[in-house]
Design brief:
This protein has helices at 12-15, 19-29, 33-43, 50-59, 61-67. By secondary structure, the protein is mainly alpha-helical. The radius of gyration is 12 Å and the shape is globular. It starts with 11 loop residues before the first helix and ends in an 8-residue tail after the last helix.
């Protein structure tokens, strides 16, 4: 069975987990949430499951930050 649900930018916080939440928080702090949604629509023109989005934000955060022009501190 396959269920497709469209979610808004603000629903992401309730849907993501682990490291993806940290990435999302950085994006929100930098006021880039709408830009993120546009990037996700470009990367995934067809529906994908939330695990794909979660993994992108969790494991490819450097790519996301680069695409959104978010500077990261080197701690």
């Amino acid at each position: 069975m396959s269920i497709v649900k469209e979610i808004s930018a603000f629903e992401l916080r309730d849907t993501l987990w682990s490291g993806a939440l940290d990435t999302l928080e950085t994006i929100v702090e930098n006021d880039k949430l709408q830009e993120l949604m546009g990037l996700l629509e470009e990367l995934y023109p067809e529906p994908v499951d939330i695990t794909t989005i979660n993994d992108l934000l969790w494991f490819d955060d450097d790519f996301i930050f680069e695409q959104l022009s978010i500077q990261q501190d080197d701690d």
